[in-house]
Model the fold of this input.
Amino acid sequence: MHPQIRHARFNLIVCSATIVLTSAAYLLMLRFLDPQRARAAFGFFGLLGLLGLGPTFYHIKPGEARVILDERDKQIRDRSQVVAWRIVWLYWSLACMGPWAWVAIRSGLDAVQVPFVPVEWLPWVLMSGFLVFMTAWSISILVNYGRGNSKDDERAT
Amino acid sequence: MSELRNRIRRLRFDHNEMTQQELAEQAGVTRQTIIALEANRYVPSLLLAYRISRVFRITIEEVFQFEE
Done:
């Protein structure tokens, strides 16, 4: 299997685990603690640090002279990055408008009073944007490699 | 619609049944790229096209054909 495919799969597993564990922990803590303290569940975002292990997938053994990434792989990587940026831009646009709507609705849509979005939401919008980017990038890489290639890749010659 | 076809599979066979891995190593790409090229799913850069034609010691036009 190509190292870039393995890398994309690893990223996807890390991102999925982060989403599942953070959501589960938050919902669980919300049952027993107050919403303020339940935010400790967001500590599971630290799992994203595992994404830093990515370069190990491209390790070449000493004396080994094989090509790891060629022009096609770089093209797939760059194309997937463009797709991921488009998705994350859309996400950020919505994430920046969503909280205003949420706060406005909760405060009773008072036309005179301008609703305030808690500043502590911003780091989470940024962090979740990174999560969305990595997920979209990984999926796009897998889709690009998977377009009718899977059977051929197994062929011996 | 224009397309770039190639004779890489045929040429490999004519050159002592060269494997995809051997061609990939000599052209400086991965085997997956050779697979994609043979299936006409990937259009190579001019540089790679030259490198592949050099492996077979023939001109670039003998490897790649432009079809309209």
